[in-house]
Write a structure and sequence with these properties.
143 residues, mainly alpha, 49% helix, elongated, transmembrane, membrane, DUF983
Amino acid sequence: MAESTSQRASAPPPATAGALPSGFGAAMARGLRCTCPRCGAPGLFRRWLKPVDRCAACDMDWSLQRADDFPAYIAIIVTGHLLAPIMIALATDAALGPLGLAAVLFPSAIAMMLGLLQPAKGVVIALQWWHGMHGFVRERAGG
């Protein structure tokens, strides 16, 4: 019989003094940089979107994370909001035809999406860890 997520969750390994982030923003910034949200060590991902099972520095179990499609939604929303003014400016001010507009915007959108996916997933993993979701134990610096 398979263990449930709540049964797999155990007390987190002890963190070294000062290793835990000082607040929610610090944890999110660590995730955005694709570093361990708990200790800040590099290497949250072993492949492009596949997180490591355990942090090499603090031994935190990251296999509990359940980011699913949320990072893609974040990347789509950010890409759309950043490209919308550029699309409007190019469509109204530039002397580009539809094909020229597509030649500029499609590669830009694809590059932005691909560039934002991993940092967005790091933020979602940090968010889940910070709030103690999906079997993570909620930890705070100083107690």
